[in-house]
Design goal:
271 residues, single chain, mainly alpha
């Protein structure tokens, strides 16, 4: 893999991971339309996914540190857990994220083979991008309540939406944020919870891949390309998060629907 290709793939990975356009969908359609195998290098995938994970941790570092601290406090004083859940916003978020991560973990582990089969069906992926676009366009009709935060029920439903997004073409960010908006959660809190909910998902997926490549030999001459791809994924991930938050703040989340419609339609007619 050349440094230039690693740079481009890292940029694409970071941008599509956090914008509501489905990174996996782009991968499948790109391979089918351009007849270029973007995937297959498991070690490189681990590196770039780690880059996107770091971009999330960096952007939401205050939330992450405070959630970890409150979770440690709860572990040290189990009897205080009910009070912490009521009074400590960060512990409550940590608990809700853990709860919301269960559906994706169950789906990912139980139907892994079936989901893998979707990656060999570009037509299905293109249709799923149209579904993502339709979900995004529907958010134009909702009026989320300013300041309303994620609760127990909304965290579970957003977790279910994340589980559905294991299907390539269904955007993880698009489905989880849209679900929050449909439930009346504010734009800011829907996005914040969606991104924090991605942390266990990305970390878990990366950890599973690490176990597969831990004994894989990485040629020394490839290390520069891997590093460039990781940095590119990290930087573009930060940009994507900031762009999405700004678009949400302006109430223009549905704009991404037109892009999904365009890419999905191209996939249907060109494949």
């Amino acid at each position: 893999m050349t440094v230039l290709k690693a740079l481009l793939l890292g940029l694409i990975q970071g941008l599509t991971e956090f914008l509501p356009v489905s990174s996996s969908g782009h991968l499948v359609l790109g391979e089918a339309i351009l007849q270029v195998p973007f995937s297959g290098n498991m070690a490189f995938e681990v590196f770039v996914h780690f880059g996107t994970f770091l971009s999330l941790v960096t952007f939401f570092r205050v939330d992450v540190v405070r959630m970890l601290r409150s979770s440690v406090d709860a572990a040290r004083r189990p009897s205080s857990i009910p009070q912490l859940y009521r009074d400590d916003q960060y512990f409550r978020y940590a608990a809700l994220i853990l709860l919301g991560s269960i559906p994706a973990a169950v789906v990912g582990l139980s139907v892994e083979d079936q989901v893998a089969g979707f990656f060999s069906d570009p037509k299905l992926v293109a249709v799923m991008l149209l579904v993502t676009g339709s979900v995004l366009i529907l958010t134009r009709k909702v009026k989320p309540q300013e300041g309303r935060d994620v609760k127990l029920g909304s965290s579970i439903l957003m977790g279910v939406a994340q589980a559905v997004a294991v299907i390539p073409g269904i955007s993880r960010a698009g489905s989880t944020i849209s679900t929050g908006l449909f439930l009346g959660v504010s734009r800011e809190n829907s996005a914040r919870f969606s991104f924090l909910l991605a942390l266990p998902a990305i970390f878990g997926a990366t950890a599973l891949k690490v176990s597969e490549v831990i004994f894989e030999y990485v040629p020394p001459e490839m290390l520069l390309s891997y590093l460039v791809g990781t940095v590119a994924a990290y930087a573009s991930g930060l940009v994507a998060i900031k762009v999405l938050l700004e678009v949400l703040k302006k109430g223009k989340f549905s704009w991404f629907a037109y892009y999904c419609y365009l890419v999905g339609s191209l996939g249907i007619f060109l494949i």
